[in-house]
Design a protein that fits this description.
Length: about 250
């Protein structure tokens, strides 16, 4: 039997593979013809919305730890709390706040242990605390001082602070990313001009830091009874949004 040789087809295949590997579309990028740039940008924006948190609570009388709670005392405490909540909402509406901007949270009930000293010994008694959280959303920051005064006059038991934020977060983070890319382009043009080279197309782009957005908190938490007469902070300041990118350009041969 005659054995056929496959030398010619194999040689042809090898030439074809070699040709494909040397074509510009599939050729490996030359690292010595690239320019890498990293850039960061910080966008400072003025907040345009605020969220205020406050709480109202009522407590039942103190009883011994092993005593049976009085249902009537619990009912009375809840009635007082609901009445105060209604009065607070009406006060806020009278101060110019839209009803849709007022969110009265669900009733919360929890035991509250109180420690004291009697005849040199530590004594523990317990009561029930009923609480209603209130959250207010303000789109007009000029209302903040007026609403804080209204909360104080209404006798809220605790103010959980003010969170300054942005209505359109996406637009702000897009601007921060755009500034980072513009900074990268500026740096690349400066480096190319200084080195006497020409930039071709962009080879790679990636974020080194996604835009970070942190709402600005003021007066983290304060008991109204303790902070009465203290100067409140009403200035929203600015919110910082950071972004970072890394861009690789091809250098013209």
């Amino acid at each position: 039997m005659t054995r056929r040789t496959l030398t010619t087809p194999l040689i042809g295949l090898g030439l074809l593979v070699g040709a494909l590997l040397t074509t510009p579309a599939l050729a490996q990028e030359r690292p010595d013809r690239q320019l890498h740039v990293q850039a960061q940008a910080t966008l400072e924006v003025v907040p345009d919305k605020a969220t205020l948190g406050a709480r109202l609570w009522e407590r039942t009388p103190l009883i011994e730890v092993d005593a049976t709670p009085d249902p009537a005392a619990l009912s009375e405490a809840r009635a007082r709390l609901e009445e105060r909540t209604g009065e607070l909402i009406r006060t806020l509406e009278a101060a110019g706040l839209d009803s849709e901007a007022i969110n009265a949270g669900s009733l919360q009930v929890r035991p509250d242990q109180v420690y004291s000293q009697r005849d040199g010994e530590r004594e523990v008694r317990v009561r029930t605390q009923l609480e209603r959280p209130i959250q207010l959303s303000l789109s007009d920051l000029e209302q903040v001082p007026l609403i804080l005064d209204a909360l104080t006059e209404a006798g809220v038991d605790a103010l959980d602070g003010i969170q300054y934020d942005l209505v359109d977060r996406d637009a702000a983070t897009d601007r921060a990313l755009t500034q980072a890319l513009e900074r990268a382009r500026h740096k690349a043009d400066l480096m190319a001009e200084t080195l006497g080279v020409e930039l071709a197309g962009v080879l790679r782009v990636q974020e080194t830091q996604a835009p970070v957005f942190m709402p600005r908190m003021m007066a983290a938490r304060a008991d109204m009874a303790e902070s009465a007469g203290a100067a409140a902070e009403y200035r929203p300041g600015r919110i910082s949004i950071d972004a970072g990118v890394e861009v690789t350009w091809e250098i013209e041969p």
